[in-house]
Write a structure and sequence with these properties.
10 helices, binds 2'-monophosphoadenosine-5'-diphosphate, alpha/beta, 12 strands, six-stranded mixed β-sheet, six-stranded parallel β-sheet
Length: 284
């Protein structure tokens, strides 16, 4: 958007913290690139202020917004309808103002799987996939993998009961195993893809490693949803052990790309979004 042009539509993200979000720079660059007179802003919304904030956004006639930590679950109370995927995941990260009201979607899982496919090739159905963690991010990733027909899906978590609960949640979609961590560790050589959805290894605890790398299947993919640091200690170790590695930038960009499409009807230039984000993260 040119500097003295009025934005015709307003978008944004609500979260706490939200100051370091890369969504504004990513979406505003893409709006300009697509010559759309739209603007995207980061709104700091503290817990306890969510209802007022969502009502405020509605009253201001924003056209849509993203939702990030810690509001992805509670925001569902203030929307008119929740898309089936988001309901399955139990969280909303993208809200769209549609003819029939404010609709909540979840683009995290789709965004993640798109980025995984760039590494894994075209199909995942026959891959054996391990997901570490059973929180919101794991639910998004597992729901989408199950929707895509992955047949050999295993989840493990520090707290086993949460892995069991996640398994129950998606069991109508996929035959998924919930396995205690020591047992899953023994199975490490059988996995084609290992996905860390926990925060283990995230800055500032950059030396922590979520999974051992000493008996990985040759050629397997180790994928971390973390992008701060860009290459976690686990990914560095896995790469030295011969694995292909994937960081969390692709998921961040992918969820943004699907949100952008929902708001504008246009599939964005994903490579450009990726480059903008990498530039701001100090990568290349
Ligand atoms: P998110 O929405 O990012 O997934 P979350 O819902 O709080 O966040 O889930 C965090 C996940 O990381 C959980 O699976 C958590 O394990 P527990 O269910 O046992 O709490 C996992 N996690 C966080 N810190 C961890 C640690 N130090 N070691 C192992 N797992 C950890």
């Amino acid at each position: 958007m040119e500097k003295n042009m009025q934005a015709e539509k307003l978008f944004g993200v609500i979260g706490d913290p939200v100051g370091h979000s890369l969504s504004p720079v990513m979406h505003n660059d893409q709006f300009a690139f697509q010559e759309l007179p739209y603007y995207y802003h980061a709104f700091h919304v503290k817990p306890g202020e969510l209802k007022e904030a969502v009502n405020g956004l509605k009253a201001l006639h924003v056209s849509g917004f993203n939702v990030t930590v810690p509001h992805k679950i509670e925001v569902m109370n203030y929307l008119d309808s929740i898309d089936e995927e988001a309901r399955m995941i139990g969280a909303v990260n993208t809200v769209v103002k549609e003819e029939n009201g404010w609709i909540g979607y979840n683009t995290d899982g789709k965004g993640y799987v798109e980025s995984l496919l760039t590494k894994a090739g075209e199909t995942l159905e026959n891959s054996s996939i391990l997901v570490i963690g059973a929180g919101g991010a794991a639910r998004a990733v597992i729901s989408e993998l199950a929707r895509r027909g992955v047949r050999q899906l295993t989840v493990t978590n520090r707290t086993s009961a949460k892995a069991e609960a996640l398994k129950e949640r998606v069991s109508e979609r996929a035959d998924i195993r919930a396995v205690p961590t020591p047992e899953a560790e023994k199975d490490t050589p059988s996995f084609d893809i290992i996905i860390n959805t926990t925060s283990v290894g995230m800055s500032p605890h950059v030396d922590n490693i979520p999974w051992r790398t000493d008996h990985l299947k040759p050629g397997c993919i180790c994928s971390d949803l973390i992008y701060n640091p860009l290459k976690t200690a686990w990914l560095q170790e896995a790469e030295r052990a011969g694995a292909q590695v994937l960081n969390g930038v692709g998921m961040f960009v992918g969820q943004g790309a699907f949100a952008f499409q929902k708001w504008t009807g246009i599939w964005p230039d994903v490579d450009r979004m990726h480059a903008v984000v990498m530039h701001h993260l100090g990568g290349n």
